[in-house]
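S1.2 Input.
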Amino acid sequence: MSYRGGSDGFEVPQRREIMPENGLTLVVMPTYNERENLPTIVPRVLGQRDGIHVLVVDDNSPDGTGKLADEMAAADERIHVLHRAGKLGLGTAYIAGFKWALERNFEYVFEMDSDFSHNPDHIPEFLGAAQEYDLVLGSRYLRGVTVINWPMSRLMLSYFANIYSRVITGLPFTDTTGGYKCYRRRVLETIDLDAITSEGYSFQIETTFRAWRKGFRIGEIKIIFADRTEGTSKMSGRIIREAVWKVWWLRVMRVFRRI
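S1.3 Output.
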């Protein structure tokens, strides 16, 4: 589906699964204790297209993920690493990655988990859709539910969290909390990255909301989401609580036209 920001209308376009001829692509991967996944996921991403680069944003992982990322970067010029002092949160990791991309010649910037819950094989489809849209969302709920290996309790939490966020904010998308996204450069140049304070679920809601309110064209593609097989989830009660109240803050900002 495709929606233009601020509009109540929608259209169902013809799918164009093409690769962009021009424009470098950066996949931003925040990491914290992902040493087991990094040597497998990064080559899979790079193998999707010659013009793809990976930026690992590591929060001083105790398991040595940052050191491993440095070794991988030394062996491949398409791998880059940002080291941060500690566990500073998913949202700030992505913002650091976005700013890094804007300082360089990247046209397409991805958010992507490093634990294989986001399948790298979807990247060409994202890039094809990005020829029509400014922001492409990977949706787990576009046509049915395409989530694998989640317990029913977590699936229900995610599903109803999306309904909740849509009702409160007015966002007309099937998956507002997913973290697999592709931005055109102009979106990140336009939205105020320094004004974003959200983490976790609410970070995904807020970034999409800001792009939507700016009038950018936003499309969704269907993805298969699989729970991680290595490492541990970073989900916490604090992240859930933040999402509950943050959508109301976004609604207030919309009412008073502050966003």
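S1.4 Remarks. The longest helix spans residues 237-255.
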